[in-house]
Specification:
Length: 266
């Protein structure tokens, strides 16, 4: 009996190891389909993309996109509220499946994560106080006593850090950043140009749009962990379907008054 055990033990161990490796290698699409749920990270404090409405329910353009994509994949959306500063790390740690929260596709992020095709095209824009008539047109102007506010860990934070000598203050999210701008603690913020008009109108903030910063148009995609080719294909097909049937255009017209699902001249 001991001899039989000694013969089969290595075989059994190898089989168990293969099974464990197979489980680890399971494509995200299979995992999501089996669970019947797509876990989606959102900030929940970034209007008009992801925020809580008067009744407390999540609303916004990205919430609508997330629900439509989950339906295309044949699963239910499950939203996970996460501060922006840790949202990418949480994805890498497997706390959720995707992030749908205006994540700009950058070469640095693509080194660590895979992205869907772009579903939104936008640009970076400065935001100033309504009573501030200074014409600030470039990040290089934020030196000395001029201070720029940015969300920590955002693409705009990276843009600011690339400017030598810039005077910058970081925030965990848009509410604190915009609050400090209104109170005069900073001179301007930088953010997605699509958020400005809705935010000023919705919350009656004494702010105005500043300059759209020069540079390539920003492409927003949906990040997920590397090594999931089936999921990547299914996600891109779902986005293409929403673009082709006009859903993405209708959603962007509703929230922004313009079709942001295709690249356009700014």
């Amino acid at each position: 009996m001991k001899a039989i055990k000694s013969v089969f033990a290595p075989v059994l161990a190898a089989a168990l190891l293969c099974g464990a490796a197979s489980a680890r290698a399971q494509d995200l699409l299979d995992t999501v389909k089996q669970a019947g749920v797509l876990k989606i990270a959102v900030e929940g404090t970034y209007p008009p993309f992801t925020y809580r409405g008067p009744g407390g329910a999540l609303e916004g353009f990205d919430i609508d996109v997330a629900k439509a994509l989950a339906a295309k994949l044949g699963v239910k959306p499950e939203f996970v509220i996460t501060e922006w500063g840790g949202i990418l790390a949480g994805l890498q740690a497997g706390k959720y499946d995707v992030i749908i929260n205006q994540v700009t596709i950058t070469p640095e992020r693509q080194q660590a994560l895979d992205f869907s095709q772009p579903y939104v095209f936008s640009a970076a824009q400065l935001i100033q106080r309504a009573n501030d008539d200074r014409k600030i047109t470039a990040l290089a102007e934020f030196t000395g006593d001029k201070k720029l506010g940015v969300t920590a860990g955002s693409n705009y934070h990276q843009m600011a850090r690339a400017v030598p000598g810039i005077n910058v203050k970081t925030y965990e999210g848009a509410p604190d950043k915009l609050g400090d701008l209104v109170r005069g603690q900073i001179d301007a913020t930088i953010d997605d140009r699509l958020m400005l008009a809705h935010t000023i109108k919705q919350f009656r903030l004494p702010l105005r749009p500043g300059a759209i910063l020069k540079g390539p148009q920003q492409e927003m995609g949906i990040p997920f962990r590397k090594g999931n080719p089936k999921f990547a294909k299914a996600l891109d097909e779902a986005i293409s379907s929403l673009r082709q049937d006009g859903t993405l255009k209708r959603m962007s017209m509703t929230w922004f008054g313009a079709d942001t699902s295709v690249a356009a001249a700014l």
